[in-house]
Design a protein that fits this description.
By secondary structure, the chain is an alpha/beta fold. It has a single domain (4-266), classed as Vaccinia Virus protein VP39 (Rossmann fold), CATH 3.40.50. Helices cover 33% and strands 21% of the residues.
């Protein structure tokens, strides 16, 4: 089993490669940067083109939902995107919050930050910024954000409980998040779980749905709802990289074991406690 440090380094290297590729290449595999599939499969990401603020140069096809569509962003809000990549969700959020709002993108990978900053300079936005950092320790002070969004990123983080604690710290009392992520309804085959490229593709790192949701409520969030829930079907030509025919048949008995969910929850207005950071 890989250590947290090894996992983070693997993710950093993989997403540095992805940052240098275009959407068509990334979409042709389960993990981005090509090589997983013999046909073009966009097995997780959803279509952004109908959303205000969409910028094709910032869309690498790496998400598993449309969290900004569900995030209830208002004019003037401060929005933080965790795992902002080349800026796709940040630019959609900026269209919602307007010129009086502020959008901060956080990403672990230097190459992604560089690409996002190039994109924002081209667009000329002065209220969108990108910061490099680990979302287990979000580089933002407490009680800043009205809304936090994230698209298929918490999956890649070893300590998901720490991330939800950080989200709680950074949100204003009464603020909320909308996060799209991959969860499981049954166990994955070990051969898939141990595959590095499937890990970087947000599949092998997925945890049980109930466990994932329990981290949210245990952190102190309230009014949690699942805004969207869809199956993720991995094509046979990808599965064949890891499983034999018998194993594939057994896996497909539970073909909806991998789900993409978009989950919403709120930080209570009255959240005074020793570890909430809002007193």
């Amino acid at each position: 089993m890989k250590s947290d440090k090894e996992i983070k380094e693997m993710v950093r290297q993989k997403y540095s490669e992805i940052a240098l590729k275009d959407k068509e290449v990334n979409a042709s595999s389960c993990c981005g940067s090509g090589g997983c599939s013999t046909e073009v499969y966009n097995i997780m990401s959803e279509e952004y083109t109908e959303l205000n603020g969409y910028n094709p140069e910032a869309d690498l096809g790496l998400g598993c939902g449309l969290p900004t569509q569900f995030a209830k962003i208002k004019k003037g809000d401060t929005v933080i995107d965790l795992g902002s990549g080349s800026g796709n969700d940040c630019f959609v959020a900026r269209a919602e919050t307007g010129e009086l709002g502020k959008v901060i993108g956080i990403d672990f990978t230097e190459a992604m930050i560089d690409k996002a900053r190039e994109n924002v300079e081209k667009l000329g936005y002065n209220n969108v910024e990108f910061r490099q950092g680990d979302i287990e320790k979000i580089p933002v002070t407490a009680n800043v954000a009205d809304v936090i969004v994230s698209n298929c990123v918490l999956n890649l983080v070893p300590n998901k409980q720490a991330v939800f604690a950080e989200i709680f710290r950074v949100l204003k009392p009464g603020g909320h998040f909308s996060i799209s992520d991959i969860v499981l309804t049954a166990a994955l085959p070990e051969k898939i779980k141990n595959a590095a490229e499937m890990y970087a593709g947000c599949v092998a790192s997925a945890i049980d749905k109930d466990e994932y949701l329990s981290y949210i409520t245990e952190t102190g969030f309230t009014n949690m709802i699942i805004q969207k829930n869809k199956p993720i079907i991995i094509p046979d030509d990808i599965l064949k990289n890891y499983l034999n025919n018998e194993e594939i048949a057994q896996y497909k008995v539970n073909e909806t074991v991998i789900r993409s969910i978009t989950v919403y929850a709120e930080k209570p207005v009255n959240c005074c406690s020793s570890n909430s950071g809002c007193c």
